[in-house]
Amino acid sequence: MSNTREILSYIAIIIIGIIIAQHMNVVVSGSMEPVFYRGDIVVIEKTDFLGINEINPDNLKIGDIIVYNATWFPEPVIHRIIATDTNSNGTPYYTTKGDNNKVPDPAPVYHNQVLAKVVSIGNIPFIIPKIGYLTVWIRGL
Question: What pTM was estimated for this model as a whole?
């Protein structure tokens, strides 16, 4: 019986670790400085986590920091929503920009491109500083 409990506790720890890891994203550029820096980890809520919608991409607002699949960059981008609008077909989209960038991102972000939102406490993003730098180094980014 003791072995069964021990095995179950290990399984629970592994599952909890996987869930926590799936809700963290490593920052790989300086485009959002000074809010967060390259190598920081941001805690996120996902639009689809195992079929669960933790956030609705239709309900985001100006000021939210999102992770999205960019049409102009091969990796997901973490930038702030600076405007909302609709195109000529009536499809809503977001305009995003890195806080450290001089100009907005080069393409609109449609709601189906949004992968996650950075968790904020008040208006402060939930960040774990520099812990992800090893990941950045290993990936060569």
Answer: 0.84
Q: Active-site residue among 23, 31, 48, 99?
A: 31
- Confidence at residue 68, expressed as pLDDT on a 0 to 100 scale: 96
Q: Tell me if residue 10 falls in helix, strand or coil.
A: helix
Q: pLDDT digits over 30-79, tens only?
A: 899 999 998 898 999 999 888 878 899 999 999 999 999 999 999 899 99
Is 29 among the catalytic positions? Answer: no
Q: Is 79 known to be catalytic? A: yes
Whether 31 is catalytic is: yes
How many domains are contained in the chain? 1
Q: 123 lies in which domain range?
A: 2-131
- Does a structural domain hold residue 141? no
Instruction: Tell me which of 48, 64, 79, 99 is the catalytic residue.
Output: 79
